[in-house]
């Protein structure tokens, strides 16, 4: 991983009316708007070593004091989740990869998959392009970081710990909601084009992954947003941004007030959901809450 000095954290305590964009921390305290006790929101990295949590100021302390845990989806039954994801990721029977790709792009995808997995589209051809993209990216991470363990993902760990403590775990969306955003909200043609772009620029993708990891370690949320949305050779389209981030944020912001009012909550969602003018931090302010970084 690239070496980078930790960025200085900035302390913000803006009122809800300002709607000022937040950056500079991964863990944020939520107060005001009638809450009797604070709740907390933590931006996770879905592919990052669990040991990193030891370096995040306050995260285990506030998690231990929370009365319920809130995640993107419930992760308790991994076998069922895997089966649902596999079913959602299957290519429709009336569509083939040859219909989505030119001959040259088909050969490129087949070659790159074979180099990574030892098998190409003869095996992966039954999957939607976004499913293949996800599998390729996950394998790329495993090669970059061989000590990374899937069973130590932040989101899963928090939910397992909450279950062991006997506190309620709440999912902000269903598996169906998430698989739609990941696998169905974008046309298969666009998914295939995104996969080709990623494979043609695999070295750049690897470099970007290292930059993103360094920014995550530095809690540079604004930098992560700029990297993902502005500086990417294969950026998300406006349609993808809405489906994967903005629309989900809006649905979650409709649910969070009643959840936090019921019990002090520890909320763990992907870090990219926190940032930006349509992110959760700004959204919570607009709802009347105060948010500030937890720095110790």
Describe this structure in words.
The chain is α/β, with parallel strands linked by helices. It has helices spanning 59-65, 78-88, 97-100, 103-117, 121-124, 129-144, 154-165, 175-184, 188-200, 202-217, 221-229, 238-262, 280-286, and strands at residues 27-31, 39-44, 68-71, 168-171, 265-270, 290-293. The chain has one domain. The longest helix is centred in the last third of the chain and has 25 residues, at 238-262. The two termini are 26 Å apart.
Largest sheet: 6 strands, mixed
Please indicate the percent range of residues in DSSP E strands (runs of 2 or more): 5-15%
Order of helices and strands: EEHEHHHHHHEHHHHHEHE
| Helix content, binned percent | 40-55%
Q: Structural class, from helix and strand content? A: alpha/beta
SSE layout:
Layout: E1 27-31, E2 39-44, H1 59-65, E3 68-71, H2 78-88, H3 97-100, H4 103-117, H5 121-124, H6 129-144, H7 154-165, E4 168-171, H8 175-184, H9 188-200, H10 202-217, H11 221-229, H12 238-262, E5 265-270, H13 280-286, E6 290-293
Parallel strand pairs: 2-5, 3-4, 3-5
Antiparallel strand pairs: 1-2, 1-6
Helix pairs in contact: 2-8, 4-9, 6-9, 10-11
């Amino acid at each position: 991983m690239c070496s980078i000095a930790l960025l200085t954290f900035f302390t913000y305590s803006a009122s809800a009316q300002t709607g000022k964009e937040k950056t500079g921390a991964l863990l944020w305290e939520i107060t005001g708007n009638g809450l009797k006790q604070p709740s907390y929101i933590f931006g996770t990295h879905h592919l990052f070593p669990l040991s990193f949590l030891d370096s995040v100021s306050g995260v285990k302390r506030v998690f231990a004091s929370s009365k319920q845990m809130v995640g993107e989806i419930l992760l308790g039954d991994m076998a069922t989740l895997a089966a649902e994801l596999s079913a959602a990721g299957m290519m429709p029977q009336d569509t083939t990869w040859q219909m989505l790709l030119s001959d040259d792009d088909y050969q490129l995808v087949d070659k790159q998959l074979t180099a990574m997995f030892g098998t190409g589209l003869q095996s992966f051809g039954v999957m939607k392009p976004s499913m293949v993209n996800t599998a390729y990216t996950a394998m790329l991470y495993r090669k970059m970081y061989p000590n990374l363990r899937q069973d130590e993902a932040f989101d899963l760990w928090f939910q397992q710990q909450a279950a062991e403590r006997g506190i309620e775990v709440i999912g902000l969306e269903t598996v169906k909601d998430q698989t739609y955003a990941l696998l169905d909200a974008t046309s298969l043609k666009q998914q295939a084009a995104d996969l080709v772009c990623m494979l043609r620029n695999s070295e750049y993708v690897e470099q970007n992954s290292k930059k993103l990891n360094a920014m995550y370690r530095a809690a540079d949320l604004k930098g992560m947003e700029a990297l993902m949305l502005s500086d990417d050779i294969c950026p998300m389209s406006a349609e993808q941004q809405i489906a994967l981030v903005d629309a989900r944020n809006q649905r979650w912001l409709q649910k969070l007030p009643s959840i936090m009012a019921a019990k002090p909550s520890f909320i763990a969602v992907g870090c990219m959901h926190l940032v930006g003018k349509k992110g959760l931090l700004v959204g919570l302010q607009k709802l009347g809450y105060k948010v500030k970084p937890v720095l110790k």
